[in-house]
Amino acid sequence: MEAIDWKNLSFGYSKTDYNVRSWYRNGKWGELEISDSEVINMHMAATSLHYGQESFEGLKAFMGKDGKIRVFRMIENARRMQRSAAGVMMAEVPDSLFMEAVIKAVQLNKKFVPPFESGASLYIRPLLIGTGAQIGVKPADEYLFMIFVMPVGPYFKEGFKPTDLVIYRQYDRAAPLGTGTIKVGGNYAASLVAGQHAHDNGFSAVLYLDAREKKYLDECGPANFFGIKKNKYITPKSSSILPSITNMSLRQIAEDMGMEVEVRPIPVEELSEFDEIGACGTAAVISPIKRVYDADLDKEYLYGSEPGKISVQLYEKLRGIQYGTEPDPYGWTDIIE
Ligand code: PLP
Ligand code: COI
């Protein structure tokens, strides 16, 4: 294998040795299979291809300073994938199969877990797809659940350096009572044009507003939004955003740091009142934001060009738990032997 430049990894696909797969047929999940192929063989009328019957997840494994590999909150990803499956009428992957697959996929690819010093991690991508053939708009009767992994660096190439977001009112990512709260591919297809528009103009992501009224903040492309105001951690309540496991963890960490946590609608104008803001997610970790440009109103909101004090504290605590350098009082990590 070619030597990997661990320190300069970006967030992108690379081939590792093995992936794991289980097929749902005749109403039940089969044994977990190990594959060294990057290819899936499936029917051309599979429902995932035509009608978007699919869901994916994202979680990470970290090499600790103590040489132990830790996976972060995999049970939460299992539960979210079950909600996604229910949301598009797919067979649900039980907790036990999900966790067995995560553990196996990491164990089989241990040599791809980036070393502690690199600050990189192993990204774990569970995928659930309808493979059964249908041409009427109906759920499939066969599914494939699989997990593949790859070493990754930061999602936003700036890493922990603050970036710029943009607000465009002409795009929605998800409808108020649509699929925004589950992790299905259609939401990401729906975000591509807006994301490209943002990138072409030098922004790292779009900060979406609620689709119904365009009054409140929703989320930032592939990450949740949070704002810090004095001693408060404030994050949007919305029926069209993905419940982020990172955000849920940061709320707990903020509370433990003695901060007040508010989950509520955040009017766009409140952007002018925050001391610090950031995007958070598995891939994004915490990405501090230095500027939000409201393109329709030609108005900008500015934050510091360096990460804010609270964002740094939250980031360090979260990373510390993930890499095993901080205590893990809630048992968020599982060690992979
Ligand atoms: N929001 C969206 C739309 C996402 O795709 C993700 C990534 O999974 C997140 C938020 C962050 O969620 P999590 O922290 O669970 O990775
Ligand atoms: C993650 O943060 O794990 C995600 O799934 C975001 C992404 C779409 C890359």
Describe the structure.
The structure is a single chain. This protein has 337 residues and is an alpha+beta fold. The chain has 2 domains: 6-152, 2-Layer Sandwich (D-amino Acid Aminotransferase, Chain A, domain 1), CATH 3.30.470; 163-323, D-amino Acid Aminotransferase, subunit A, domain 2 (D-amino Acid Aminotransferase, Chain A, domain 2). It is built from 7 helices and 18 strands. The protein has helices at 47-51, 74-87, 95-108, 185-189, 192-200, 245-256, 309-323; strands at residues 19-25, 28-29, 33-35, 54-56, 59-63, 69-72, 121-130, 143-152, 163-167, 205-209, 217-220, 223-229, 232-235, 260-263, 276-281, 285-294, 299-302, 333-336. Strands 1, 2, 3, 4, 5, 6, 7, 8 and 18 form a 9-stranded antiparallel β-sheet that branches. It is globular and about 55 Å long. The two termini are 23 Å apart. Pyridoxal-5'-phosphate binds at residues 58, 219, 222-224, 242, 244-247, 281-282.
In this entry the ligands are: pyridoxal-5'-phosphate, 2-OXO-4-methylpentanoic acid
Q: Structural class, from helix and strand content?
A: alpha+beta
Domain module count: 2
Q: In the CATH classification, which architecture of the largest domain applies?
A: Alpha-Beta Barrel
CATH superfamily of the largest domain: D-amino Acid Aminotransferase, subunit A, domain 2
Q: In percent, how much strand structure appears in the residues?
A: 25-35%
Query: Helical percent range?
Result: 10-25%
- The radius of gyration is 20 Å
The helix count comes to 7
Mean pLDDT figure: 97
Strand element count: 18
Shape annotation:
globular
